[in-house]
Design a protein that fits this description.
This protein has about 250 residues and is of the alpha/beta class. About 35% of the residues lie in helices and about 30% in strands. It is built from 9 helices and 12 strands. The protein binds adenosine-5'-diphosphate and magnesium ion (2 copies).
Length: about 250
Amino acid sequence: MLKIKKLHVNIDGKKILKGIDLDVNPGEIHAIMGPNGSGKSTLSSVIAGREEFEINKGDIIFEGESILELSPEERAQFGIFLSFQYPVEIPGVTVTNFVKTAINETRKARGEEDMPASEMLKLMREKSELLKIDRAFLSRSLNQGFSGGEKKRNEIFQMAMLKPKLSILDETDSGLDIDALKIVAEGVNKTRSKNNATILITHYQRLLDYIVPDFVHVLYNGKIVKSGDKELAKELEKRGYDWVIETVS
Ligand code: ADP
Ligand code: MG
Ligand code: MG
């Protein structure tokens, strides 16, 4: 589904990613871990197509085609979802209306009609039940006064409604409490299928107690320095990152 080939990325002339290779197949969950400043958020932003980065070398292939020339909106239409894409507060726009607009914008870009209201309602009902989201939450203004957990709930609801092929969840927030982590985990687990894939960026091994990744990668200083399975995350929790870093520096 996603193939990252020898990706080198700069910001303001500074080398941030220094040759990333990553293959993600349908049905897989990949966790990307690593110390602060390693380039994890840069990697997720580059996949989603944020434009402040210079791609010097390498390629990002999604479903067989290079996406480097596509805008973030076009990548979203192809089924790439990045969490925290819309962290803005929008007074007067409800959680429901925001997600409806996002769905219909995507359809419009594909030359399709708006989703019929009855179908939208059914989808909304199905996903809010799945994720145990109540009606009061759906009619709140987007992100206004949301707690950390509510922001996560909103994000996960958007993800469930949009049904992306590839979700990239960048769990940057060190203030996330255990309830918020559980909301994310439940959302990922319940929307998981053999057709979609998730890249989960986290420095918390704890999140991986709730989401079992197929692969764990350690990103350090712009490179993936170690890959393994879920046992690697457990080892990192016990031993920290230093033992991995020592082997490369
Ligand atoms: P992580 O998510 O692993 O903590 P980041 O991708 O946020 O790492 O950052 C990687 C490196 O890139 C850091 O050294 C950071 O200072 C630098 N960086 C990130 N964004 C920018 C930016 N917009 N301008 C300049 N440097 C940046
Ligand atoms: Mg950081
Ligand atoms: Mg980060």
